[in-house]
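Practice problem: predict the structure.
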Amino acid sequence: MDAAQQEATARARELQRNWYGEPLGALFRRLIDDLGLNQARLAGVLGLSAPMLSQLMSGQRAKIGNPAVVQRVQLLQDLAGQVADGSVSAAEATERMEEIKKSQGGSVLTNTTQTTSSSSAPTVKRVVREIQSLLRSVAAAGDILDAADSLAPTHPELAEFLRVYGAGRTADAVTHYQAHQS
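Answer:
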């Protein structure tokens, strides 16, 4: 990717952050993880082609042009929150995704980080994902691990934090988070 392409991608991601609250790559990856989907299935539920979803995720394309797709993203965010807090089972989520696939709607995404049916508090997994997303937005995993190695001799706890949240698996980060909450 040349400098002009990198600049265009960075600009598209910044527009996505302004329009949707975060880059669509991060938003879609979270939906994929939270709902147990793959990219093709997510594209199908949203009513996008797989290449279009890929372009939105990579920042090659900035905007979702179809208002119904924007509405489906919102509905999936709501559903992911309900799955994360346990108020909707995986089987129910699968049924709801079929309903979402058929829905039509508006053009505005609202922040649903704290929208759950049982509580206004974000789930541990959601908090961990936000930390991971923030770290990974400022540095690549290899750079984070290099920084952790540099810190390890003098600041082992901070090095562990960087390794777990910056380059580790979400499940391990959730375990770490829960172990350090007292």
